[in-house]
Design brief:
single chain, five-stranded parallel β-sheet, alpha/beta, 984 residues, globular, four-stranded mixed β-sheet, 43 helices
Length: 984
Amino acid sequence: MGAEGKVGHGTEQQEHLLHFAVLGPVRAHRDGQDLPMGSPQQRALLAALLLRNGHTATAEELIDGLWGEDPPDRAKAALRTYASRIRKALGADAELLVSESGGYAVRTDRTRSAVTFDHDLASAYASEAEKYLAGGDRSKAREKYASALEQWSGEPLAHVPGPFAERQRDRLSEWHLSLLENRLDLDLQLGAHAGAVSELTALTAAHPLRERLRELLMLALYRSGRQAEALAVYADTRRLLTDELGVDPRPELADLHQRILGADDSLALEPDEPSGPSTPKLAQPAQLPATVADFTGRATFVAELRDQLAQAEGTVMAVSAVAGIGGVGKTTLAVHVAHAAAEHFPDGQLYVDLQGAGPSASEPATVLGAFLRSLGVDDTGIPEGVEERSALFRSLLSGRRVLTLLDNARDAAQVRPLLAGAKGCAALVTSRARMVDLAGAHLVDLDVMSPDEAMTLFTRIVGEERVSAERQAAMDVVGACGFLPLAIRIAAARLAARRTWTVAALASKLADERRRLDELQAGDQAVKATFELGYGQLDAEQGRGFRLLGLAEGPDISLTAAAALLDRPADETENLLESLVDASLLESAAPGRYRFHDLVRLFARACAERDEQPPSEQESALNRLLDFYLATASKVFALEKPGERGAEHLVKPFGPGMVFEDRDAAVNWLFSEADCVLACVEQAAGRGMLRHAADLLIAIKDCADSGVHSLRYERAATTVRDAARAAGDALAEGRTQTMLTHVHVVAGRFSQADEEAKRALLLSQESGDPLAGCWALNDRGIIANCQSRFAEAETHLLQALEAFRADRNRPSEASALSNLSAVSLALGRKDRAIELARQGLEIYENLNHRMRMANGRYALGRALTENGRLTEGLDQLNRAAALFNETRQPLWEGVAHFRMAEAHLADRRPAQAAGHAEQALALRGIGGEWMRGRMLTVLGRALVALGQRDRARVCWKDALAVFDEMGATDAEEVRSLLTPAQAA
C-alpha cells in the first residue's frame, strides 16, 4: 500500500479516516476508534497484505508467510475465513480488501474513506528528510526524521506469528534503528549533544555491537566536555568486539578515537550551510538595539571596527573594545557598527548592558544565564557556576558565527567569561575604561565629535532651516555641550520640541547656567550640565518622578513597581514615564519596563539629594517600593505554598501588591522580577530595613532553587545577614541565616550549611522567633542525614516535627515527615519509612499543595523502592519527576531521576538505570557537587552491568575527586568500587 494509496476517492466524498498500523501491534481504527482485527493469524494476514504495497498475494504466498513449512490441512479455507472476518470488521470499508487471481490485495482506491498507513507515513517522512538533508537544511531534516520515528508505537508486528512477520519484524526494526541513528547524528550536528548522551547510553546498552551508536555516543560525550568518558567508550567497545567477535573496531570508530585523543578542532560543531535556516536547538538571537536614524560622523571608526569584526569569519575570534568618557557615543557607535557587520554573523547577535558604570555591575554568571536562554537552552540545562556557564556558552557557539555586543563593561575581568573564543565569532565591547588587559582586543579610543560632526548631528535633530539662520549660535550650543554626542542630542531635542525658542536663546541658557563647560575635559561634568538643561524643563510632577525613580536599584523597573514607588495610579505613572522617555531622560527597555542610563541615574539621585522636599520623601518612596515587592512576593508565596504558615510570621505590608490570576502568572512575575527584587533587598539592608529585607528573602525563597538566580540570591542574603549582625537584630539575622542554610544545602556545602543552621537556631531562641527555629531544626536534620549522622538527624527532625505542629504549620509538618522517612530508611526501618512518607503525602494532597506534593511522592517512591516494591516506587518517582518539571524545580527533578536510576539498577535493568542517571546529571540536583558525585557513582554501576567498565571507571574517578575535595564519607564506597576495576 504505497504513498499513492493513502487516500481513497476524491476528498469531497471522504467522510471518515481509516488508519492501519504495523509499526507496533497490528491495528486498524476508524476516526480514532479501534476495529476488532481478530486472532494473531488474522492480523498476520492483514499485515502481509498491507506490506505488499497494493500488489496481489497469491494463496500459496500467504500460506507460506503465515505458516511456513507446516501449514494446517485446510489452510486455504482458513485464509478465506480470515479475509471474511477482516471485511466484516472493516464494515463500510470492506471493499478495500479484494479477491483476485486466487489471492488477495488491499486497494485503498476502493473505499470512500481517507486511508493512512503508518509504514507509508514513516517512509514519506524519511524521504522528505533525505531531500532536506541533500539541500543542506539539517534542522528540517531532523524534524522529518523525528516525525518518521513517531510512527513507531512499539515492536513492529508485535505478537504476529509466521515466517513473513519474522522477516518483516527484523527489517522494520533495523529500519527504525537506522532512522534513529540519522536523527541522532543530526542532533549532534545541531548542538544537542548534551541531551543525546542519555538516549545514546540506553541505545548502546540495548545494541552493544552496533558501532555507529558507539561512535555517536563518543562524539556526544566529547562535545559535552566529557573527554575521558568518550575515550573509555572506545576502550569498552574494542574489548567487547574482541571478546564477542574477534574483530577490531571499524576504521571510522578508531579514527574518531584518535581525533578525540588529539582534541581535533574539526570535532567542534560545524555551522549550518547557508541554504538551511537556523537550527531549532540553538535559537538565532537578534538582540541588537535599534540603530539611531540620525547617526552622524565617525566614518573612520565605523570602517575600522567593521573591518575588524569581518575578520572573524575566517580567523580566530575578533574582539574590539571601544573606550571613552560617558556620553561620548560609545553605545551608539557600537550598535551602528554591529548592524553594519551583522551580515557576517548569520547565526545571531547577542546584546547586554553590563551596567559597568553603576554601583551594581552585572554579574558574568547572570549575563551568561540570559545568553544561554537566548540561545535556546532551557533553565534546567543552565549550570550554576560562572565557569560552567562560560564553558557551555563557548561550546554552543563553537562552529557558529555569532556577534556579541557587550555594552557598558566595567573591566576586562567582567568581560572575559562572556567571550566565545571561537573562530567565526566576534565581540564588540564598550567601556569607560581602556581595556589594555583584555588579551587580543583591538582597542579604539573614542573622543568627542569634531565641530563639523557635532554641527551635523545638531542640524539633523533641530532642522536645517533653524540652524542655518543662526549658525554661530548653533556652534555656541554644541561648543557648550563639549561636543559630546549625548549632550548634543539632549540639547537639540529640547530645542526641536520648542518651536518658539531661538537657537540663540538656548545658547544663552547654556552660557548662563554652566559657565564651567568651557573648561570641561572629562565626561561627568559635561553630561551633568546637559542633563541639568533637560531636567530644568520638567514640570513639578515630572521632576518628582525623575528624582524618585533614580533612587531605586536594579537593572530596570516595571510600570507597577514604579507606580508603587511614586504613589500614583498606574495610568498616570505610565504617562509620566513616557514623558520622561520623550525627554531622553529615561529609556523604555520593553513594554511596561523602564530604565535609566547609568549616568542619568546618578544625576537623578543628585537631584533628589538637592531638590526633593521634604528629604524624608526619598525614604518614603523606597519604603513604598519595598512594601510593594514584599506584598506581591508574599502573594506568590501563598499561591505556591497553600497552608504554609510561614507567611503569617512575615512583616505585614501596607499595600495590596499585585493580584494574579493563577499560580503560573505569579511564578512568572517572581522570576521576571527576581533581579529587581534582590536589588531592592540589598538596598533595604543598607537603609536599615532589615526585617523587611529578611522577610522578602523568605518570600522569594524559590529563587534560591532556580539555578539561574541562586548566586544573586546568595549575595543578597549575605548582605542582609552581615547588616543584621552589625545592627544586633537577632530576628532578621536568624531568618536570613535560615535562607543561607538553604542556599548551602542546595549547593551541597553541608558543613557550611550546618554552621549557619546552628547560628540560626541560637538566634531564634534569643529573639523568640518560631519561624527560624522550626526551619533551623528541619535543616539540621536534613544536613545530618546527608552527612550520615542518622541518629542525630532523627533527633533534629523529631524536634522540628513537634515545633511545626505547635505552630500549626501543616506543609512544613509534612516536610519533616518526608525527611524522617529518609532517615528511617538509613536506619533500616523500611516499613516505618513508608508510613511516614504516606503521612506526609496525605497532608500535601489534602492541601492541594502541588509544589510540595512532588516532594511527598518523591519520599514515598524512594521508600517503596528501597523496600523492594519497585513497580509502586517507580510509579511514584515518575509522578514526582513530572510534578517537579511542571512546578519548575529542575534540581529536584534531577534527584528524582537519580532515585529512578537506583531503582532500575536494583531491578537489574542497567540500561534504564544509565538513561535516568544521565538525565539526572543533565538536570543536576539538590546537593550540588555532592549529588553529582552520587549520580556519577550510580551511572558507573549501571555501566559496569552493561559491560562498559572503562567508562564506569572514569565516572567513579570523577565522583571520587568530588567526594575527596568535600571530605564526604561517600568516598570510601567509590574507592572500593575502583579497586577491583583497577585490578581488572
